[in-house]
Write a structure and sequence with these properties.
- This protein is of the alpha/beta class.
- The chain has twelve helices and five strands.
- Strands 2-1-3-4-5 form a five-stranded parallel beta sheet, with helices on both faces.
- α2 crosses α5 and α7 packs across α12.
- The chain starts with a helix and ends in a 5-residue tail after the last helix.
Amino acid sequence: MNVLQNLVELYDQLPPGSTYKEVARGILGHLEEVADSTIYEVAELTNSSRTTVWRMVQKMGYENFSDFHHALKQAMGHYSYYNRIQKPELCTDENRIVSAFLHQTKNARSLMEKHFTAESLLVMADKIHEADKVAFYFPYHTFSIASFQQNLSVTGKETDYVCLIPDMKESSSHLTRQSIVFIETIDHAESMDAMDVFITAKAAGAHIIKVSQTRTSYDPYTDEYLLSFDTNDVTTNLILITTYFLMLSEIYRAKYIDHTI
């Protein structure tokens, strides 16, 4: 998760009227200005205090304002590399953009037909049903996991779905040997380090399922890969993840709620 994802996620999850939400709103509304400001200037810009800005930065997982400020300055100075779904060469006109998405959708279907078998999904559903807690650590929210959470809750399963590193660390400290955790990491130079999350989950004995197969320093702590094959692009990856959890949710419901299979 990069600094801009962090800011948006924090802003979305905070309740209306929260002081930190107002600070996040002020920063999001003046990103370029904040990227060149001191903590005192940010406090003045957001009508808050230096302490409030510092605490908000900590909520996002940064140890100090300097780390946050450096990450924001990098992001604003190189935004062409951030939040990009398609490669730049595929975005030269609207027709190429649409064509790229359609091609990747077809590619995702081919991969699903090859790798997403009913048998493997049923095995995962059974494994999850035996767990005491199922946690989802993703840098973004998706409706497919939220829907799956609902079905898990109906069967009395404890779940957790968090997107910020500090929340992941807190959640991982409550895992057990009977827990399953799905972790998706966006791996690039500006990503926040999730190593403490993996270490804590592993120490608890939880079964760690890393969503993507991309080789990282987290591999020694990973027990299983959800997508055990290369997907090549962001769009294909997102389609696969969304569809996988929709399929898994429906199979889980059919077996443990509707009792039709």
